[in-house]
């Protein structure tokens, strides 16, 4: 869900990974669909790799977004431009155990803004992909049974008749 959605330091909004470039990567803005190159020196983070500090352990951003989604019943969250006190109160309702010393208001603004952008573009999918066990399928088993063993021909030497 979030592995191809990127945040780039110094650029507002979210970006979708498009392809690899010589000096970085090509990304497309989710807001205006404009493509640009993110140079190798830019700090690029996949949303899948981001987590939020709590008092006990770090919580994956995906779980925080899910908590906001559940709180809002799939609707839009408050504006990221709300007052600092409103944002803190809202985030405490969503994630009561967040670390108030290490999670700044700017971080809360980003998370709420990202949630609203992802919701707007219908990119919030919280269903876990089901991976089937990698046992041999019936076809693979049949292929192994059907394949005849290759016999190597014996070398024969002809004697010259005298």
Write a structural description:
By secondary structure, the chain is an alpha+beta fold. It folds into 2 domains: 1-49, SH3 type barrels (Roll); 50-125, Arc Repressor Mutant, subunit A, CATH 1.10.10. It is 29% helix and 18% strand. The protein has helices at 61-71, 84-94, 105-120, 138-146, and strands at 5-8, 15-21, 24-29, 35-39, 44-46, 51-52, 59-60. A hairpin with a 6-residue loop joins strand 1 (5-8) and strand 2 (15-21). The longest helix has 16 residues, at 105-120. The mean pLDDT is 83.
In short:
With 162 residues, the protein is α+β, with helices and mostly antiparallel strands. The protein is 29% helix and 18% strand. It folds into two domains: 1-49, SH3 type barrels (Roll), CATH 2.30.30.730; 50-125, Arc Repressor Mutant, subunit A, CATH 1.10.10.
Helix content: 25-40%
Total helices: the number is: 4
Strand arrangement, largest sheet? 4-3-2-1-5
Q: Termini distance?
A: 80 Å
Query: Which second-level CATH architecture of the largest domain applies?
Result: Orthogonal Bundle
Question: What portion of the residues fall into strands of 2 or more residues?
Answer: 15-25%
Rounded to an integer, what's the Rg over CA atoms? 27 Å
According to CATH, what is the class of the largest domain?
Answer: Mainly Alpha
The secondary structure category is: alpha+beta
Q: Mean pLDDT across all residues, rounded?
A: 83
Q: Please, how many domains?
A: 2
Total DSSP E strands:
7
Shape: elongated
């Amino acid at each position: 869900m979030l592995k191809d959605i990127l945040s780039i330091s110094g650029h507002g909004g979210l970006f979708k990974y498009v392809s690899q470039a010589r000096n970085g990567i090509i990304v497309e803005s989710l807001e205006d669909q404009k493509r640009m190159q993110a140079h190798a020196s830019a700090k690029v983070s996949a949303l899948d790799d981001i987590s939020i500090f709590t008092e006990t352990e770090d919580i994956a951003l995906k779980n925080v977004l899910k908590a906001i989604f559940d709180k809002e019943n799939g609707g839009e969250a408050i504006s990221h431009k709300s007052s600092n006190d409103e944002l803190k109160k809202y985030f405490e309702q969503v994630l009561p155990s967040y670390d108030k010393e290490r999670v700044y208001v700017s971080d809360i603004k980003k998370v709420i803004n990202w949630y609203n952008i992802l919701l707007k573009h219908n990119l919030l999918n919280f269903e876990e992909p089901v991976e089937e066990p990698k046992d041999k399928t019936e076809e693979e088993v049949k292929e192994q049974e059907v394949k005849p063993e290759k016999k190597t021909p014996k070398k024969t030497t002809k004697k010259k008749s005298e």
